[in-house]
Each structure stands twice: as C-alpha cells, then as structure tokens.
Amino acid sequence: MTNLQELLLKPVWQMTGEEFIFLSKHASGQTETQPRPVTDTERKYVYGILGIAKLFGCSLPTANRIKKSGKIDKAITQIGRKIIVDAELALELAGKKTGGRK
C-alpha cells in the first residue's frame, strides 16, 4: 500500500476502491482485521409454537402437544409468553426413546 500521507493528499475521485477503504479504516481508528470464520458452535434458536412446528415439520396443534409432553423441556426457556427453544438440543431430545409400549 502507498504512503498514508500520499493518500491524504490524493483527491478522492482519483483513489482506487482499495485505497479509499484503507484510508477510511485508518481514519476511523480501525485496524485491518481478517474476518473471523463462522463457527458452528453458535446455538440456533427457534421462537414460539410456530418455531417448534417449523423445526419438527408438523402442525401447530402437534407442536403444542410436543411442548406439553415434556420431552423437550430441557431445550425450552419460557419467560411469560415468550418461548425460546434451542433447536439442536430439542431435536436431540425428541430423538431419544424413553419408555414406550411394552
């Protein structure tokens, strides 16, 4: 990259896009950082009965039955009327067999 002083004296209309971005980052005090890779460790959440229905691919009444059954209670956080569901944990809990017919 060229000298910072040269860039400051150069008219904006003569700058390349790279020079302009470098100058704007330097002026705002930011340093050039590499974008961090997206990690798959971030939790994914769905919200409400509609979110549960979309997650399991079922109807709203069935989603309500799934919630009321208690199978996915560990994945649900409910504050008042707001329902927040950890999607991966809910799918894992729903896949586990507990009891059943004899």
Automatic annotation (TrEMBL):
Pfam families named among the record's database cross-references: DUF3853 (PF12964)
Superkingdom of origin: Bacteria
InterPro entries: DUF3853 (IPR024363)
Listed name of the protein: DUF3853 family protein
Species in which this protein is naturally found: Bacteroides fluxus YIT 12057
Taxonomic lineage from the root: Bacteria, Pseudomonadati, Bacteroidota, Bacteroidia, Bacteroidales
